[in-house]
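We were asked to recover a plausible sequence for a given structure. The inputs and outputs are reproduced exactly as logged, with field labels preserved.

PROBLEM: sequence recovery
POSITIONS: 408
GIVEN STRUCTURE:
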């Protein structure tokens, strides 16, 4: 049964959007299983740039059914705004091709407020993700099903009473503002209500009918709440385990695709052993245009960390890797790659010769400079997982396909 999952192998921003877009075109169903609008997936079709945060990328290529799974947290305002922007760009979104799981949780204005006030040390995207998942886990969150059942308004009051009891940082003025956001919320939810459904029967039917299914991961493995660099992580299960709890079905994924950027980036705070604070770091940021799609923050840049990626392969069982943004390494001189850490936790590097040629858009592996081919082969040999696809530029045509991606 053709089932695919795409997962970021590092700290997010690996270029998942592009590969998901290429795959989604061939799919019957695309599902997001975790995260929320902290994700920022950029897709380029010719000169048109689409950015999705919540809506599964399949809507852009016209995939039959796109589901926001129960493992996601969704802000009504952000979602409606994103849908309106996409619709202006000519993307068709109806309840027939887009479903929000009833069991997904809501991100509410209070969550964004708390994220801003409480989570600065993590350097979050301030999208309310952590506080929304906190409420989910503490069994005080609001599910999207309340919109269909007509219980949202009562749930909203009850939730704010709970918030008032728990958090001293919410003063009276803020409480009044939060209570006053109800009419705007109700108006927005009315527009979104047709999209709220129990997504599991549709998913079960797609599996029964042997449909092509793609699970679209957001963030990256080392932002995972359990397996990431805690506490500098996001609040969801970004690795493969999240796919099962975040959808309500088991799928024996034919292709477990890890997206690996050919260097490393990270946004926000937290450990980053191969970080470059010198001219090379600057060069990578410039070459790779490493600024956040969600927050616009400059991303921290560094050498490829294969010791970290080895763990990522273990966690996710990748059987196919996509190596992205290789063209951004041109002109950096000798390239370093971390293969281990020493007793003090410092990376142990191996050096590989670089290349100067501009390879953006290259579509033939043999046309790449020899040193570039060797860099790719070194990574593949080290990780013992085939690099099936090399991405050489932002456009969906800018790829080198080395192994078959589609099994049928
Ligand atoms: P995509 O899907 C990169 C980071 C934030 C912060 C930490 C926690 O585009 O790869 P959160 O708002 O989730 O509570 O922030 O996680 N972060 C991301 N970094 N890409 C992302 O998503 C990210 N989503 C969250 O910068 O360090
Ligand atoms: Mg991002």
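RECOVERED SEQUENCE:
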């Amino acid at each position: 049964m053709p089932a695919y999952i795409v997962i970021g192998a590092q700290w997010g921003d690996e270029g998942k959007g592009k590969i998901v877009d290429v795959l989604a075109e061939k799919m019957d169903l695309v599902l997001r299983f975790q995260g929320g609008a902290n994700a920022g997936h950029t897709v380029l079709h010719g000169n048109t740039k689409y950015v999705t945060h919540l809506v599964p990328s399949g809507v852009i290529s016209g995939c039959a059914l796109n589901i926001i799974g129960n493992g996601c947290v969704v802000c009504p305002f952000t979602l409606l705004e994103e849908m309106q922007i996409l619709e202006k760009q000519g993307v068709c979104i109806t309840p027939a091709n887009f479903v929000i799981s009833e069991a997904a949780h809501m991100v509410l204005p209070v969550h964004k407020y708390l994220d801003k006030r409480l989570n600065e040390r993590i350097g979050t995207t301030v999208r309310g993700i952590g506080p929304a998942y906190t409420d989910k886990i503490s069994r005080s969150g609001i599910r999207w099903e309340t919109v269909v059942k007509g219980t949202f308004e009562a749930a909203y009051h009850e939730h704010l009473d709970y918030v008032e009891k728990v958090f001293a940082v919410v003063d009276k003025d803020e409480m009044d503002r939060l209570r006053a956001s109800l009419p705007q919320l109700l108006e927005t939810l009315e527009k979104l209500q047709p999209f709220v459904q129990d997504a599991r029967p549709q998913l079960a039917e797609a599996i029964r009918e042997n449909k092509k299914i793609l699970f679209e991961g957001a963030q990256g493995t080392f932002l995972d709440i359990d397996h990431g660099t805690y506490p500098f992580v996001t609040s969801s299960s970004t690795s493969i385990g999240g796919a099962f709890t975040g959808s309500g079905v088991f799928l024996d994924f034919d292709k477990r695709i890890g997206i690996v950027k050919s260097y490393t980036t990270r946004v926000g705070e937290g450990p980053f052993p191969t970080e470059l604070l010198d001219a090379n770091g600057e060069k990578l940021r410039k070459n790779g245009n490493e600024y956040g799609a969600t927050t616009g923050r400059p991303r921290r840049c560094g050498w490829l960390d294969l010791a970290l990626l080895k763990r990522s392969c273990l966690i996710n069982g990748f059987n196919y890797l996509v190596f992205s943004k290789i063209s951004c390494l041109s002109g950096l001189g000798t390239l370093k790659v971390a293969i281990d850490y020493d007793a003090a936790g410092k990376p142990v590097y191996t050096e590989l010769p670089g290349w100067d040629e501009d390879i953006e858009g290259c579509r033939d592996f043999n046309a790449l400079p020899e040193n570039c081919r060797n860099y790719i082969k070194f990574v593949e040999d080290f990780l013992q997982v085939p690099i099936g696809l090399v991405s050489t530029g932002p456009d969906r045509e800018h790829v080198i396909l080395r192994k078959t991606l589609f099994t049928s």
